Structures are given as structure tokens and as C-alpha cells.
Recover the amino acids of this structure.
């Protein structure tokens, strides 16, 4: 992983680099200009939370680096397919291992979740073979799981979801439009993310100067 923080982190949750999900993540990052793609399939870590929350597991180096990138980003994008109403095991395992109590989230005295991830913006690129007309019946639970119960709970307050449905039967022209859309989103987010990253860096430098 790069040593220089990027203003956006794109989490690719598909186990296959040849997938449409992976290509969407790459297109977004390339157009953004300052985004890091975190392909979970390339990380070496145990995706099982083997002791629940009773005992803390030692973080592997790849997870340490991934969490540093997560906290440095102004914008967090998750690209994932919907499988059996949820997300691939590697993405769920990443959430289980990398998002820790008192570090990415905590609960207030009133029992309400308090997010600790600095990024306030995010996007969810959600792909599914489910046709659009069937989505109201299934409810696309992965959208709720990732956008609301994971990203927002950890502090990413504004999460916009972009659903690409009916992937299995989609024509090439439709797939091309999805890829173009990912690039457009990246190009639109890039300047703002870089500006906000510079502002945060400047504020941190000013605070350090005052302390010194």
C-alpha cells in the first residue's frame, strides 16, 4: 500500500479481479486522480472474528495499513456485489476485523452509536443480478447493511448508493454506461476530496504549531 495518504479510499469487495465490480472501482479511482483502490482479495488477513468481541485479535500488517488509509481518506467508496442478500465473505470479514470498538465507533452513555472515522462522505457501488422490478420485494438488504449499519454507524454520515441491477442479463451498452458513470463520479469527487484533504492537513499543521 502507498505510504502517501490518498484523499479517497475505494474498497473493492469482490474476490475476482476480472469482475465488473473490480472494474468499476478501478474506473472511479482512475478518474478521481487521488484515490487508492483497496482490493480486499489481495490482502493477507484472517476474515474470521474468531473470539467475537471477548478477545482482541492481533491485526495483520495489511489490516494496519488498510485502517490507516481509511482514517486518512476524506471519501470512502465501497464497491460490492450482492450475494444471497448480503456481501461477499471477504468484505464482511474485513468489516468484522478492521472496524473496531473505540477506534472506528463507540457507544455514548445513552447507548447511541458514535462514528469515529473522519470521512463524512461515502459512496456505495452495489451490483446485483436482481432485476430492478424485483428490488422492492427483496429490499436489497446489503444496501442497508453496508450504507447504514456499517458506513454511517462508523461516522460516514453522507453515503450515496448507486445501484446497478440486472447485471447478469445486462447488454454491453448498459455495462458501458455503468462504467462511464463510475468515472464521472470519480471525476466529480476528486477536486473536492483533494481540497478537503489539504484543509485537514493545514488544520493539523496549525494545531501542531500552536502546541509546539
Amino acid at each position: 500500500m502507498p505510504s502517501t495518504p490518498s484523499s479517497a479510499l475505494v474498497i473493492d469487495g469482490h474476490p475476482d479481479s476480472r469482475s465488473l465490480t473490480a472494474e468499476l472501482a478501478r474506473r472511479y479511482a482512475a478518474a478521481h486522480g487521488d484515490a487508492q483502490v483497496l482490493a480486499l482479495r489481495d490482502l493477507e488477513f484472517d476474515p474470521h472474528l474468531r473470539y467475537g468481541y471477548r478477545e482482541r485479535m492481533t491485526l495483520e500488517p495489511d489490516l494496519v495499513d488498510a485502517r490507516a488509509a481509511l482514517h486518512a481518506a476524506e471519501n470512502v467508496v465501497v464497491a460490492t456485489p450482492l450475494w444471497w442478500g448480503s456481501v461477499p465473505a471477504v468484505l464482511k470479514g474485513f468489516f468484522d476485523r478492521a472496524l473496531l470498538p473505540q477506534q472506528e465507533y463507540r457507544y455514548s452513555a445513552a447507548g447511541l452509536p458514535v462514528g469515529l472515522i473522519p470521512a463524512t462522505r461515502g459512496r456505495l457501488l452495489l451490483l446485483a443480478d436482481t432485476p430492478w422490478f424485483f428490488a422492492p420485494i427483496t429490499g436489497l438488504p446489503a444496501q442497508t447493511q453496508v450504507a447504514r449499519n456499517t458506513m454511517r454507524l462508523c461516522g460516514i454520515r453522507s453515503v450515496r448508493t448507486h445501484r446497478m441491477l440486472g447485471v447478469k442479463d445486462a447488454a454491453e451498452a448498459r455495462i458501458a454506461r455503468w462504467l462511464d458513470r463510475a468515472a464521472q463520479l470519480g471525476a466529480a469527487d476528486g477536486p473536492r476530496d483533494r481540497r478537503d484533504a489539504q484543509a485537514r492537513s493545514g488544520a493539523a499543521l496549525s494545531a501542531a504549531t500552536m502546541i509546539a
Summary: The CA atoms of residues 3 and 34 lie 13 Å apart. Residues 172-211 form the longest helix (40 residues).
